[in-house]
Amino acid sequence: MTSSPPLVSLLIPTYNSALTIAEAIESCRNQTWPNLEIIIYDEMSKDGTRKIIQAAAAADKRIRYIFSDTNSGPVKAWRVLLHEAKGKYFTWVWADDLVLPKFVETLASILEENPSQVIAGANAYTEMLPETTAGSASAVVTGEKSRGLLHHFDTVQVKGDVLALGILAAVFPVSQLCYLVRTEAGKDVFDHYMQFENPYGFDFLKRAYGNDVSYASELGLRSGEVMMIGEPLSVCRASPASMTVNAHRNHRWQYWLQYVWAIRFAWRRCRDLSPRMDSLIRVVDDRVSLCETVYALKNKKMPKEFCPIKIARAIWFIKFEDRRMNPKVGAASLEAWLAKKASK
């Protein structure tokens, strides 16, 4: 670590987050990295969130906040925060999540030591919060919390295309909470991943399924190589009312279709960033065909991308090369798979 470490920006978007925001802010304040700014942007909270933010800011001069009386949706809120960031590096800290004390120190040190890399990442714990008490500044999370390891991988430096494929194949984390990014690169890339043209009428600004993964993919590919730390450095928490939990519960196949549609957009856009991108693009093309077919049939519509060959390949890849189905899949096996495909 240098004698004068660079400023790091921790960016917290909030909306009716009174149940968890105090813990999220405190986790940012407890970082071992000394040079931080914590920026909080709240849109239209009515549950006491703003009083908690104001109290935290009064206690710590590193905290500044912006309040809006309109709600633009999550993605535009993320953009507001990103363009407020003054740090050399940044990450978003979702209002119900936590960063562990050495998150910034570990990842910022990696980026300082590797100037060509624009993103570094780490494993996380996953924690399902129990049912919560409703809606006031004094509301608290009640009951027992359930915490486990989000992924299983050793510390490894991987090529950017392996990171991208590893996110799709559940080897590496999806959440931006698990990554620290060079702010200049983040600002340069972000606007490409706000909204995605699609024939289904999906509004990615309102339901941001896949925006973050697409964004991380391009940053990884721009890096060329990325250091991924196997030790958990954050806690991805979800309540029964969270956006992702509700997506899986209420419209699972829309979630998956949006997710892979956004990834395909990113990988096609990044075709020139790796000589092995054609292999990645074929994988996600196949996954779109599978997800779109199931989504269409569940909604009693004709599929637009139905292709039996692509669907068969998608199922094969999921069975053998996706960690959700094959626990032996990891960074090394994905690298070997890509090398084999590229050699043909």
Task: Explain what the structure shows.
This protein is 43% helix and 18% strand. It has twelve helices and ten strands. The protein has helices at residues 21-29, 49-59, 74-84, 103-113, 160-168, 183-190, 211-223, 243-250, 252-269, 277-298, 308-321, 331-343; strands spanning 8-14, 36-43, 63-68, 89-92, 98-99, 119-128, 146-149, 156-159, 179-182, 225-238. Strands 1, 2, 3, 4, 5, 6, 7, 8, 9 and 10 form a ten-stranded mixed beta sheet that branches. Mean pLDDT is 91; it is low at 132-144.
In short:
The protein contains twelve helices and ten strands.
Task: List the topology elements.
Layout: E1 8-14, H1 21-29, E2 36-43, H2 49-59, E3 63-68, H3 74-84, E4 89-92, E5 98-99, H4 103-113, E6 119-128, E7 146-149, E8 156-159, H5 160-168, E9 179-182, H6 183-190, H7 211-223, E10 225-238, H8 243-250, H9 252-269, H10 277-298, H11 308-321, H12 331-343
Parallel strand pairs: 1-2, 1-4, 2-3, 6-10
Antiparallel strand pairs: 4-9, 5-10, 6-7, 6-9, 8-10
Helix pairs in contact: 1-2, 5-7, 5-12, 7-9, 8-9, 9-10, 10-11
